[in-house]
Amino acid sequence: MKLFLLLSALGLCWAQYAPHTQQGRTSIVHLFEWRWADIAAECERYLGPKGFGGVQVSPANENVVINNPYRPWWERYQPVSYKLCTRSGNEAEFKNMVTRCNNVGVRIYVDAVINHMCGSGNPAGTSSTCGSYYNPNNRDFPAVPYSGLDFNDNKCNGEISNYNDASQVRNCRLSGLLDLALEKDYVRTKIADYLNHLIDIGVAGFRLDAAKHMWPGDIKAVLNKLHNLNTSWFSAGSRPFIFQEVIDLGGEAIKSSEYFGNGRVTEFKYGAKLGTVIRKWNGEKMSYLKNWGEGWGFVPSDRALVFVDNHDNQRGHGAGGASILTFWDARMYKMAVGFMLAHPYGFTRIMSSYRWDRNFQNGKDVNDWIGPPNNNGATKAVTINADSTCGNGWVCEHRWRQIRNMAAFRNVVDGQPFSNWWDNGSNQVAFGRGNRGFIVFNNDDRSLSTTLQTGLPAGTYCDVISGDKVNGNCTGIKIQVGGDGKASFSISNSAEDPFIAIHAESKL
Ligand code: QV4
Ligand code: CA
């Protein structure tokens, strides 16, 4: 009995780092700004069948409706209440999505905006996604309710101006967003009630927005109030998966390690550095990726949530800078996402975006505010074309063959060690994952032609980047692995996708 108690206690104490994805599913997709009905359909027709582990959805709570600029994507980061009604759908549609996704083994993680309410500059009124009244001027949010007593004005009556002052970063207003007093049990309870409502519906965990702007102890106090996950889909005693948005590129007062006790943290150095390496800026080379992960100063792998780009830095918000690769840089982007999904470091999140009409002036996209494809403000449905791509302005990176197949690669090699690293001292590299997978990149300005130890059993393998294994044949490149585990690879530097990936399930 004692052993059981110890094991269950251990299970409890590290569970908030575990995403609770079904066995064999190792990545989540951020379906940014998608409608709940479209996410439900995508779970059943694509994410479930293709082995994706879950979906990060946009904030589910009521937010301000901003008309100037017209319905910016970021209005959803200005809460008005914790009612489940947004541009993505209402409570019934949210419940339907969670049930249908869970039923096909795809988890739902909600982007929880709990550091603040709306911007101080908004006019009072009912311009909100559920029609609730709010008055930022006197901190009145009757639909929660919150009053002036529930905000940090008495600690700091201004905006964050000095990121070297930890108290400012937590107690002042981020971009004018009214800062909640999370040391108050009343506020902690209102937030916990909202998150518990979502947990009881069946969500598996949360992205904690602007976690850097909350005291770690206050977050812990909220998390301690949370229910265990819904036993309709999760084992008894499962704790919500927590990943905290903490931008720590170094050089500031706040360190992401302060938040390890609450759950995982977003590792923003990952995408910034990988983009620099793949772009070959500042003398960076892929051969330097041999010690990728903690060797590059990142947080421990079991505390990291990693991504190539996110909804902020793909449009110049937040952190990462010019090196961030996005779907706009498709060829390099596929290499970066492929590398991320093949490498064992961190828990991986794939970005899925919409196109917008970028307009660079003096190096800045003045259209960075543009919201999702819409008809007079109503978000457009996600349409699926005959070739399985998406229409209506949705990019669906997660449906790109190279990315979809690398998500499957990660599932196949799960638990296998990083092995058989090779590089040419420049930008031609390769590595394996035990005896289950192997990947080769050519990012040099000359062709690659070499024989490598793959660690794989002898056989004929389909390259999952240039094609698929269909009806016992390869629609793309075939790779022969000999009895000694060696295989010859040739990759032109002008190839559509200058990388090759093979794994145990792409073997004929
Ligand atoms: C403006 C002025 C303020 C003024 C205020 C008055 O700039 O000086 O006090 O009006 O109301 C939007 C506008 C911003 C405006 C603000 C309203 O862009 O100009 O302030 O609304 O207060 C997103 C966008 C922001 C947007 C915000 C709220 O990125 O541009 O602000 O939503 O709509 C840091 C943080 C990190 C954060 C990142 C962007 O450490 O946590 O900045 N990332 C998360 C989310 C991000 C979101 C927020 C946090 C806020 O990923 O999407 O910001 O919830 O690095
Ligand atoms: Ca705060």
From TrEMBL:
Asked if the keyword Metal-binding belongs to this entry, the reply reads yes
The protein's GO terms of the molecular function aspect are: alpha-amylase activity; metal ion binding
Question: Which InterPro entries does the record cross-reference, listed alphabetically?
Answer: A-amylase/branching_C, A-amylase_C, Alpha_amylase, GH, GH13_cat_dom, Glyco_hydro_b
Gene3D superfamilies given in the database record: Glycosidases, Golgi alpha-mannosidase II
Q: Which SMART domains match?
A: Aamy (SM00642), Aamy_C (SM00632)
Signal peptide interval = 1-15
EC top class, as a word: hydrolase
- Is Calcium tagged as a keyword? yes
Residue intervals of the Glycosyl hydrolase family 13 catalytic domain: 26-410
Instruction: Give a Pfam family name.
Output: Alpha-amylase_C
Q: What's the EC number here? A: 3.2.1.1
Gene Ontology terms describing biological process: carbohydrate metabolic process
Query: Which metal ions or organic cofactors does this protein require, according to UniProt?
Result: Ca(2+); chloride
Instruction: Quote the catalytic activity from the record.
Output: Endohydrolysis of (1->4)-alpha-D-glucosidic linkages in polysaccharides containing three or more (1->4)-alpha-linked D-glucose units
Question: What keywords would UniProt list here?
Answer: Calcium, Carbohydrate metabolism, Chloride, Disulfide bond, Glycosidase, Hydrolase, Metal-binding, Pyrrolidone carboxylic acid, Signal
- Positions the record marks as coiled coil are none
Protein family per UniProt: Belongs to the glycosyl hydrolase 13 family.
Q: What is this protein called?
A: Alpha-amylase
Q: Which gene encodes it?
A: LOC101725713
